[in-house]
Amino acid sequence: MFWSVYIAFIITLSITGSTATSSPGLNETKWLDSRRQADAWVSRMNLTEKAAIVTGSLTGTCIEYVAPVESVGFGGLCLQDGPAGIRLAHLASVFPAGVTISATWDRELMSQRGSAMAAEFRGKGAHVVLGPSAGPLGRSPLGGRNWESFSPDPFLTGVAMDQTIRAIQEGGVQGSAKHIIGNEQETQRKRTVVDGKQVEAISSNIDDCTLHELYLWPFADAVRAGVASVMCGYSRVNSTYSCDNKHLLVDILKGELGFDGYVVSDYMATMSGIDSASFGLDMNQPGPMLSDLTKTAWGDNLADAVHNNLFPEARLNDMVRRVLTPYLYLGQNTPDYPSVDPSSLYLTLENFGLLQPWMPTPAGRDVRGNHSALIRHMGAAGCVLLKNVNNTLPLKESDITNIGVFGDDAADVTSGLVNPDDGFSIGTLGIGGGSGGGRNSFIVSPLEAIKERAREKGGITVQYITNNTALSSGVPGALYPWPDICLVFLKTWETEGADRESLEADGDSTAVVENVASLCPRKTVVITHSGGANTMPWASNPNVVGIIAAHYPGQESGNAIVDVLFGDVNPSGRLPYITSNRTEDYGEQAQILNVTGPAATESWAWQSNFTEGLMIDYRHFDSNDIDPLYEFGYGLSYTTFELASELSVSVRSGPVSPYPGTVPTNSTLALGGNPNLWKTVVTCSSSVKNTGSLAGATVVQLYVSLPQDDVPSGTPVRVLRGFDKVFLDAGETKAVSFALTRRDLSYWDVEAQDWRIPRGEIGISLGFSSRDLRRRSTVKII
Ligand code: NOJ
Fold first, then answer.
1. In which band, very low, low, confident or very high, does the pLDDT at 11 lie, cut at 50, 70 and 90?
2. What start and end residues bound the annotated signal peptide (predicted)?
3. How many CB atoms lie within 10 A of CB 777?
């Protein structure tokens, strides 16, 4: 008996896993072989061919394209958006957004999503996924593209980048981590011309420490994971355009982080000509042109520049090698790599408004496989249960014969299967807009899924009002009898190219909720489809007994939420950001910079100073003692959990130096930076128990507090440095363990230009959210 329990304990220990995937994502020998083969190809190419490989071509049918070079057998590259599935495609899936998958806090699901997306990209003949995204990180909750990325927490985003990239590339497709860096707002993201005057794009002015500890952190994970490509963004970093930023691209990305793939420009983000190639850009997309369409960049210009000794051929060779190595490494030159789906041409034309009625619209290759089931599963797992008074949820089918469904997000979409620019029209919101969106081949609305459920059960009435204009001015008297339960579906439209104007859900949502809640006392449940934080002024309304943040779930929107509402899925999502009812609580950094008036025509007017440093999202709230509405890491379940044992902490044996030391000479590739940064220094363990009567999953979270007297001022009081999603049967207990690396326990020392473990007691806390910390300990390393 004793031995079987002991063996079970050991097995549990090994399966609950640690916090970090510590090994690099590339097979170094294979990568170096591919690099040698790339060099061999380079040596056989002429200047024109080499210049063509690093310059996009408008001859392709994908959003971005590199033409083949037949003399060496290079078949060309099809680069397609985006981070939630292949966008310009027919018969492809729309997956949950980045924020949704990070709300699952589930490494396995992050990876499964990446694998399924890779299968679809490959099936369509695309070689490169233009994603995942870690920029924006989410400095402001109003950022229009935050939902494409994962979380304002760099650790969580780093894990999601790592899992997604490894999975995409294991599927034979290249990832492109975007947008490096400081791409934190959409407003003035590009250079504009106002009253005839050229106004430069916003400059994200970020100090060195903040850059390393916050915004660069997940890109280090991406490089560590072996990402093939990194995309530089439209905006400026410390006054220099990202794609021209030598310090960022050469010193930091390729130098410090050891990135050996290629830097690709965002679409028309290249601001200078040949100079940008000297500054570290390796591929200019979408073709031989600059952001200013009147000028050309690269292509034959680059060949001429080399020919005239104005640009070193060695650097051109380096650029080509960087582009070819991942292509060869992933076996994309093999004959079995699918050709580009012919429908791609027409979908790309359609994207630019060029599809004419007389043109054919051939059906695409169906690459969806059985991904719907996975998408439904991920959508449910990304739901965060925020409020559940008297266990109103899950709905007890025996108690419900008359369901009321309200809100414009509940209904079927009314403006086509691609999100229109106007996100306010009636219809459920599965994904945001712009290049991170997708073309649904179908979308299941909540109302459809609820009706389906009612039909299956029989004897249930489903009444609904999905017109928010009507609901916000009082609930029309069209309901009889009054519903047993009222489900209010709200949505928040977020898109590339614009920032959010407020944190309130759209469609006069506050009035909608208040009106429905007054009709449905103590029986109103609100579900939000949103790409991030919302104010919820109605959260304390006693008639609102349930709240679920369902994020952007993708095409299975309705099915995913019905699974949670009816208890087929026990919710286990956790907020990957903090929420408050007062936008000002987020600090000045929450405001999107908007220069207006006469200053708006000043060339250098758009300066966004990241003076808050590391203090964004929960770090700002926790360090300034501000009460949130629902905190980072928070989420309820239909069961309950507790930590069942003490937190045990042990330091690696032998002396530990404050700095990581020099890069070991036996490593050719130091992916993600000095390999010593990724070594485990501290191990923590405890155990978690499901104390309820239902199987479910929880997320055990580990936060680190560096000693405030030996770190620079502005260091947050605690930061996430580990999490483990644990599935438990009722009554079951499992061990959890966390391996903290040197990087996890260090701060960026700007003088030493290195990571340093501080002297003194480092606090370690374990719990179920950033404010629900149940076990604390300290460890002294130095
Ligand atoms: C611009 C977006 O910023 C980028 O994320 C996307 O990949 C390209 N357009 C291509 O559509």
1. very low
2. 1-20
3. 16
* Adjacent-strand bridge partners of 128: 79, 174
CB proximity list for 201: less than 8 A, separation 6 or greater? 188, 189, 190, 191, 192, 234, 235, 236, 241, 606
Q: How far is the CA of 411 from the centre of ligand 1 (A)?
A: 30
d(CA 324, CA 336): 18
Residue 702 dihedral angles phi and psi, to the nearest 5°? -115, 130
- What CATH fold (topology level) applies to the domain 371-569? Rossmann fold (3.40.50)
Question: Which one, of 131, 139, 235, 133, lies nearest residue 183 by Cα?
Answer: 235
Across the range 573-579, mean pLDDT stands at: 98
C-beta separation of 407 from 526 below 8 A: no
Residue with token string 């609305």: 445
- Residues with CB under 6 Å of ligand 1 are 63, 81-82, 130, 178, 266-267, 435
Q: pLDDT tens across 22-49, in order? A: 789 999 999 999 999 999 999 999 999 9
Would you tell me how many other CB atoms lie within 10 Å of the CB of residue 380?
26
**Has this prediction a pTM greater than 0.85?**
yes
Q: What is the DSSP letter of 350?
A: H
The atom number, within ligand 1, closest to the CA of 148 reads 5
266 is catalytic: yes
**All structural domains of the chain with their residue ranges:** 28-351, 371-569
CA gyration radius, the chain: 26
Kindly tell me the number of DSSP H helices and DSSP E strands found in the chain: 19, 28
Q: Length of the chain in residues, anyone?
A: 782
What tokens appear for 482 in the block?
């009054």
pLDDT of residue 20: 47
Amino acid 254 reads K
Q: Per-residue DSSP letters for 189-251?
A: -S-EEETTEEEPPPEEE--HHHIIIIISHHHHHHHHTT-SEEEE-SSEETTEEGGG-HIIIII
Q: Which atom of ligand 1 is nearest to the CA of 64?
A: 10
Distance CA 545, CA 386 (A): 10
Residue 421's pLDDT is: 63
Residue 10 pLDDT > 60: no
Ligand 1 center to residue 64 CA distance, Å?
10
314-348: pLDDT as tens digits: 999 999 999 999 999 999 999 999 999 999 999 99
Q: Find the helix or strand (DSSP H, E) in which 728 lies.
A: strand 719-728
In this prediction, residues 534-554 reach a mean pLDDT of: 98
Angle (CA) 608 612 615, round 5°: 130
Ligand 1: residue whose CA is nearest its atom 3? 266
DSSP-derived pairing of the beta strands 128-129 and 174-180: parallel
Share of the chain above pLDDT 70, in %: 96
**DSSP letter string, 96-131:** PPHHHHHHHT-HHHHHHHHHHHHHHHHHTT--EE--
What single-letter amino acid sits at 2? F
What pLDDT, on the 0 to 100 scale, is given for residue 162?
98
Q: Are 730 and 695 in contact (CB under 8 A)?
A: yes
Q: What is the CATH number of domain 28-351?
A: 3.20.20.300
> Which residue type does 383 have?
C
Q: If you take atom 10 of ligand 1, which residue's CA is the nearest one?
A: 267
Query: Going by CA atoms, what residue is nearest to atom 11 of ligand 1?
Result: 435
CB-CB neighbours of 116 under 10 Å: 24
